[in-house]
């Protein structure tokens, strides 16, 4: 079973990376940028093929990323290439489209997956309305009732279940979570002290309520669901970042390849719909992270372009290249640390 799970993880990551890098690739090619290499994965090459277009198409050993190597990504780097084929010499809007195309592809793929999930199955609803309240649970003892709509948790506005789940995962110094709920057009404040359950050397908080089942079905309802779910996932990622910066969430809450392997293993148990949701979730994750204004990410390079547009001249290419290299090294160090933490959790 572990081997099947590993293959599924590699397949999922491969598809997401392929979709992302293909966005850069096809947009650059259509814009007339010279491309040296199209690679899925990082590290040593395990398979390569020279295309009729002269591009090296490679599969590399580690499925944790990919890249499209283009001429003149920061400055003119090859005397054999015509100046008009360098990325750095393309018009501003063309460079912007090429850099943003990977994120765009990831978001479109995620939206389509969410749409088909809603169309075929009955997905988890977006609105944070409580379903069944478990008997003798913390939620019941505190006074929460089925049909309550969560408005706030610990004075933080809640717009969806995705966001609510992040706030429930936040640390609470007092151990108490203050809910503001809407019940029969009346706003109520209810304090809940979750019960603690110990599982495999870890403790988790148990509130004791379920999510209200989704009742909307059909083509238009599926489009609505996909659109709403897409944005609530984005919001939950922003809330997660906020929690990391404020210390409400530990960096150990993040997962690397080992953590994702475990998630894939759990998702397999729940069937195709859960696997499709996982692909959509990871695809949005990849797109969201890549659009952040951090060096080495697509968003970091777009950020440099925006500065360039504002100041009316290009940023020093050597400075930009140095910043991107530093950013890449920091990302690799973070990945190693998260992976190490994932391994520790296994023992």
Structure notes:
It is built from nine helices and ten strands. With 347 residues, the chain is an alpha+beta fold. The protein has a four-stranded antiparallel β-sheet. The chain has a two-stranded antiparallel sheet with strand order 1-2. Strands 3-10 form a two-stranded antiparallel ribbon. α1 (2-30) packs across α6, α2 packs across α5 and α4 runs parallel beside α5 (219-246). It has helices at residues 2-30, 92-120, 138-142, 161-169, 219-246, 257-268, 272-291, 298-311, 317-346; strands spanning 35-50, 56-70, 130-133, 149-153, 156-157, 177-183, 186-192, 195-199, 202-206, 209-211. The mean pLDDT is 86. 51% of the residues lie in helices and 20% in strands. The chain is elongated and about 75 Å long.
The helix/strand order is: HEEHEHEEHEEEEEHHHHH
Task: Give the CA-based shape.
Answer: elongated
Structural class: alpha+beta
Enumerate the strands of the largest sheet in spatial order, edge to edge or round the barrel. 5-4-6-7
Spans of at least 5 consecutive residues whose pLDDT stays below 50 are none
Specify Rg, calculated over alpha carbons.
23 Å
Estimated helix fraction:
40-55%
Q: What's the overall average pLDDT, rounded? A: 86
First-residue to last-residue Cα separation: 20 Å
Beta-strand percentage range: 15-25%
Largest sheet: 4 strands, antiparallel
Number of helices: 9
Overall strand count = 10
């Amino acid at each position: 079973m572990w081997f099947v799970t590993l293959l599924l993880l590699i397949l999922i990551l491969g598809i997401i990376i392929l979709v992302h890098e293909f966005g850069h690739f096809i947009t650059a090619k259509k814009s007339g940028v010279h491309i040296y290499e199209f690679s899925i994965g990082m590290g040593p090459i395990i398979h390569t093929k020279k295309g009729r277009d002269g591009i090296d198409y490679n599969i590399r050993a580690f499925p944790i990323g990919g890249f499209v190597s283009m001429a003149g990504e920061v400055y003119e780097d090859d005397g054999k290439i015509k100046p008009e084929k360098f990325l750095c010499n393309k018009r501003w809007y063309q460079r912007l489209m090429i850099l943003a195309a990977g994120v765009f592809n990831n978001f479109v793929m995620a939206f389509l997956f969410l749409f088909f999930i809603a169309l075929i199955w009955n997905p988890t609803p977006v609105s944070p309305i409580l379903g069944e309240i478990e008997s003798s649970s913390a939620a019941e003892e505190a006074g929460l009732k089925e049909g309550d709509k969560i408005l706030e948790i610990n004075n933080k506005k809640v717009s969806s279940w995705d966001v609510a789940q992040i706030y429930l995962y936040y640390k609470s110094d007092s151990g108490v979570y203050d809910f503001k709920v809407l019940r029969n057009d009346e706003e109520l404040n209810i304090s809940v002290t979750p019960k603690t359950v110990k599982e495999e050397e870890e403790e988790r908080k148990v509130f004791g309520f379920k999510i209200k089942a989704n009742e909307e079905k059909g083509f238009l309802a599926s489009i609505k669901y996909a659109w709403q779910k897409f944005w609530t996932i984005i919001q939950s990622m922003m809330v997660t970042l906020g929690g990391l910066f404020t210390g409400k969430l530990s960096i150990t809450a993040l997962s690397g390849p080992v953590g994702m392997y475990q998630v894939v293993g759990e998702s397999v148990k729940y069937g195709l719909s859960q696997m499709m949701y996982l692909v959509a979730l990871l695809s949005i994750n990849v797109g969201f992270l890549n659009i952040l204004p951090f060096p080495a990410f697509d968003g970091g390079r777009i950020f440099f372009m925006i500065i360039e547009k504002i100041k009316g001249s290009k940023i020093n290419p050597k400075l930009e290249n140095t910043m991107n290299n530093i950013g890449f090294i920091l990302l690799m160090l973070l990945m190693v640390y998260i992976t190490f933490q994932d391994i520790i959790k296994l023992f």
